[in-house]
Write a structure and sequence with these properties.
Helix content of chain A: 10-25%
Number of helices of chain A: 2
Number of strands of chain A: 11
Strand content of chain A: 35-45%
Structural class of chain A: mainly beta
Oligomer: heterodimer
CATH architecture of the domain at 88-230 in chain B: Sandwich
Number of helices of chain B: 1
CATH topology of the domain at 88-230 in chain B: Jelly Rolls
Shape of chain A: rod-shaped
Distance between the termini of chain B: 97 Å
Order of helices and strands of chain A: HHEEEEEEEEEEE
Distance between the termini of chain A: 97 Å
CATH class of the domain at 94-242 in chain A: Mainly Beta
Largest interface: A-B, 89 and 86 residues
Chain lengths: 243, 231
């Protein structure tokens, strides 16, 4: 085609048509993208695996988006779960109640007597819920004077006792924790002895079908070979529960 | 008719066709980078298959989104838990020994490594242990061996009631040499160290005593102690 021939076809209609075709073929990409309508891209338009980390907004994966049982242990970071991630009544052994008492109580001291003295607790009661097995441990803090020769002190935690001053008579099944301290030539001063879970009687309270109120009592007995001067200065009980 | 088939007419018609018939598909395959935003996505269009493997990182998961129901039953193991910080009853300290000691009427310690530890505030500690006892053939008749786990013993050669936290015993009358691993259970007379307000350092001693009706030859080795803590 000669230049004359070309000029002959440079009409308005030809120029506009050519520009329109160019716009569609060359610039169609940007045009189409900027004009994508709301909700126009569905699952079919998305390639498999096309949604990468960078495409996901922070916190976009909510509970509703996670399928039941989709998270396995392998997906959970090692050592990342703590007690707080478990429900409160998770079936693990843990301290369920703490009973603390301080205050001085001078014990009557004998050489061989069996009488115990109750160390009063302001709050020795608690409720054992249904389904929880409880066991008991404790500690007794004492002060021994220099006048007490070869002290021997025994402490017990009783559950719902009828006669806490004579635990040897009908209360064996109510002894929850037991411990003692004895020392020849013991130097005077403060001492703590611990009360271990008692296995010889009813050292545990098995899970009840309904909640039960419990009354815990600390009874202590002191002996000195000669002299006196044993004072209880405090007592502690931990109830260890297993749901 | 032929007169109407001008260049302009043909190109215009093709352009219109591209726009109307093939435009959508064409444009879709050529979408510009970052042109599909949240608004363009239909609800629930991002299915599991569309998400790249391992694309869901921690930051993408909303707080508390992973409930127990989302976790596959039986899939969690102890390794998933931060056991060291757990309040639940678990082993908090282990002491082991490989040495041997000979038992007599006076108690002697069995070698134990890692015998000291710190009990933190607020934790009750319980104790269990084990030791391998051997009666030599020369230890005859009624023969007995005892193992005591002592804590913070002022004098490990002297048994003090309040220092015993675990206890084990083996009695045997069979003639000849015999060996047995004897376990030490929590001592019910104070076999606990109740929590205190401040951390407390403890020293553990596994001591043995033994007797033969006649002769001699009681030994113990491979001592083991576990401290079990609960908060």
């Amino acid at each position: 085609m000669t230049m004359t021939g070309i000029r002959k076809h440079l009409t308005y209609a030809n120029i506009v048509a050519t520009l329109a075709a160019f716009a569609v073929l060359a610039g169609g990409t940007a045009f189409a993208a900027s004009q994508l309508a709301k909700n126009s891209v569905g699952s079919k338009q998305l390639k498999g695996g096309s949604v990468t980390t960078a495409k996901l907004k922070k916190n976009a994966v909510s509970a509703a988006k996670i399928k039941k049982s989709a998270v396995t242990g392998a997906k959970v970071k090692g050592s990342s779960l703590t007690d707080g991630d478990l429900e409160a009544d998770a079936p693990f052994l843990k301290i369920s109640e703490e009973i603390r008492q301080s205050g001085n109580l001078a014990l009557p001291v004998t050489v061989s007597g069996d009488e115990f003295t109750v160390y009063p607790l302001q709050s020795g009661t608690y409720t054992q819920p249904a389904g929880r097995t409880d066991s008991y441990v404790g500690a007794v803090d004492i002060e021994v004077s220099a006048e007490c020769e070869d002290p021997a002190v025994v402490g017990i935690v009783l559950i719902d006792p009828k006669n806490p001053t004579k635990p040897g008579t009908g209360e064996i099944g109510n002894i929850a924790a037991f411990g003692g301290f004895e020392a020849d030539g013991f130097s005077p001063g403060a001492k703590r002895f611990n009360l271990g879970a008692y296995g010889g009687g009813g050292g545990t309270r098995a899970a009840p079908p309904a909640a039960i109120n419990r009354n815990l009592v600390v009874s202590v007995r002191a002996r000195c070979k000669s002299g006196t001067g044993v004072t209880v200065t405090g007592a502690s009980i931990d109830v260890i529960g297993l749901e | 008719m032929r007169r109407r088939l001008s260049y302009a007419t043909v190109v215009s018609a093709l352009t219109a066709f591209l726009l109307l018939a093939g435009g959508a598909a064409y444009a879709g395959s050529q979408l510009a980078k970052n042109s599909v935003g949240s608004k363009q996505l239909k609800k629930n269009s991002v299915t599991a298959k569309k998400i790249k493997k391992n694309a869901v990182t921690t930051a993408k998961i909303k707080k508390d989104a992973v409930s127990g129901a989302k976790v596959k039953d039986g899939s969690l193991t102890g390794a998933n838990f931060d056991v060291a910080s757990s309040s639940f009853y678990h082993v908090v300290h282990e002491a082991r020994g490989s040495g041997t000691a000979t038992a007599g009427l006076v108690q002697v310690p069995v070698p134990l490594d890692n015998a000291t530890y710190t009990q933190p505030a607020g934790r009750d500690d319980f104790y269990a242990g084990a030791v391998d006892f051997t009666f030599a053939a020369g230890c005859e008749g009624q023969r007995e061996a005892f193992a005591f786990l002592l804590i913070d013993a002022v004098n490990p050669a002297v048994l003090t009631l309040s220092e015993i936290v675990a206890f084990g015993r083996w009695s045997d009358e069979t003639p000849g040499a015999a060996s047995k691993r004897v376990s030490l259970g929590s001592f019910e007379v104070g076999g606990v160290r109740l929590q205190q307000a401040a951390p407390v350092n403890h020293t553990l001693t596994l001591a043995i005593v033994g007797s033969c009706e006649s002769g001699s030859g009681i030994s113990a080795a491979n001592a083991a102690v576990d401290v079990l803590g609960v908060k």
